[in-house]
Design goal:
By secondary structure, the protein is α+β, with helices and mostly antiparallel strands. The protein has helices spanning 5-9, 34-74, 124-129, 319-363; strands at 2-3, 11-13, 16-18, 82-100, 103-122, 136-149, 152-166, 179-181, 191-193, 212-216, 221-233, 236-256, 267-282, 289-301, 308-317, 376-380, 383-387. It is built from four helices and 17 strands. The strands form three sheets. Strands 9-8-7-6-5-4-15-14-13-12-11-10 form a twelve-stranded antiparallel beta sheet.
Length: 388
């Protein structure tokens, strides 16, 4: 009995030719390869699932560790800080101490422009010697104030101060020999130890809308500074804080009588009265000052005379300083915020998704293969036909 041409050539099932037995007589076809493919597919699926589960676990771990490791490694002040800020005040009244013909004298300047330049430099060796470099920093700050006297800048005051601070909270720690200059015309380099309080240079990372204690160098103590509002400077969100210091006496000392009245001779006992309204614009993620302004009133009072302004007027960061601070620290705040929130959420969400998909691929079972089709040999018109 002859097979049909189709039976002789065989058919493709899953890409494998189903070959008829030798002689082509009525034997069953062998479906080679079907079960092998099922086994191999299940194996590859489980391998892929395992890879996804591992990747998902890594992303979940990354999400959990984003804040305690990545964020915290960045949210810390540097040991080698190096920054400069410039403040300006218009129409101010100041005293100008200087030397004329070898003798010290003091002139009263009224309606002048005052420029104050502050530099902050970190000294890593101080805290490293104390073994505290992981938690503390030691920054030295100098402030030089000058007045524009008929087109010429003349020196008014110079201060030099060393401050130990916590690298995360910004709080003073007094760990490493804090000092303040006490120099005068006779000994401009003299200094003495000092015990700082509260915040001196910056607010903590993650500023809250509450009251903090802010150091005042004239009072030599910290006073509360209160949250006021939210604003925006050059595209950077800031918190506004205000500190109000009522006038109080800082101390008394001899002063030339002619400072209070022209032609007067000798000295009088003068008391320095000090008051200030300090406003700080703070970037809330980093705690860095973007802008600062002081309405300062330092006057000398002596019995029987009118008060003499020593430093009176409003002075604050110039526009270039504010703009640079806003651009630099606004960008850094955006990076820290992304790490603190979105990076954590993305890591966790993507990790969980990968774990679920991987687990599904590992655990999912393919439906059982159908039983081999019944093989029927039919004889019709003298030909053998096989149906699968």
């Amino acid at each position: 009995m002859k097979c049909t041409e189709r039976g002789a050539r065989g058919t493709f099932f899953g890409g494998i030719p189903a070959v008829s037995p030798a002689g082509g007589h009525g034997g069953a076809y062998s479906l080679v390869g079907f079960g092998d493919f099922t086994v191999e597919g299940n194996h590859m699926r489980r391998v892929l699932g395992g890879i996804l589960v591992v990747l998902g676990a890594l992303f979940v771990g990354f999400g959990f560790l984003a804040k305690p490791y990545i964020f915290n490694s960045l949210a810390i002040v540097p040991l080698d800080q190096d920054s400069t800020s410039v403040s300006q005040g218009e129409n101010m009244a100041v005293l100008w101490p200087h030397v004329v013909d070898g003798k010290g004298t003091i002139d009263k300047l009224v309606g002048v422009k005052v420029i104050s330049t502050r530099t902050v430099v970190g000294i890593p060796g101080v805290v490293k010697d104390a073994g505290l470099e992981d938690t503390d920093a030691f920054w030295q700050t100098t402030v030089k104030s000058q007045a524009d006297n008929n087109g010429q800048l003349v020196d008014l005051t110079y201060s030099n101060e060393g401050v130990s601070l916590d690298r995360r909270t910004g709080e003073s720690t007094n760990c490493c020999g804090d000092f303040v200059s006490t120099g005068n015309l006779d000994d401009p380099s003299s200094q003495e130890p000092i015990q700082h309080e509260g915040l001196v240079f910056k607010f903590p990372f993650g500023v809250e809308k509450k009251s903090y204690d802010w150091w005042d160098g004239d009072l030599k103590r910290a006073e509360p500074i209160e949250f006021q509002s939210e604003e925006e400077l050059f595209g950077t969100k800031v918190y506004v804080f205000k500190q109000t210091i009522a006038p109080e006496a800082l101390g008394s000392a001899p002063a030339p009588a002619n400072l209070f009245q022209d032609g007067a001779t000798g000295n009088v006992t003068a008391t320095q009265m000090y008051g200030n309204t300090r406003t700080l614009w703070v970037e809330p993620v980093t705690g860095v000052l973007i802008k600062g302004e002081e309405q300062v009133s330092k006057v000398l009072e002596a019995p029987g005379y009118s008060p003499v302004p020593r430093t009176v007027g409003t002075i604050g960061f110039d526009e270039d300083t504010v703009k640079k601070n806003a651009e630099d620290w606004g960008a850094k705040a955006s990076l820290l915020s992304f790490i603190d929130t979105w990076l954590t959420l993305i890591g966790l969400a993507l990790g969980v998704l990968l774990v679920l998909v991987g687990a599904w691929l590992i655990l999912w079972k393919r439906p059982a293969d159908p039983a081999p089709a019944e093989r029927v040999n039919l004889e019709k018109d003298g030909r053998s036909t096989q149906r699968v």
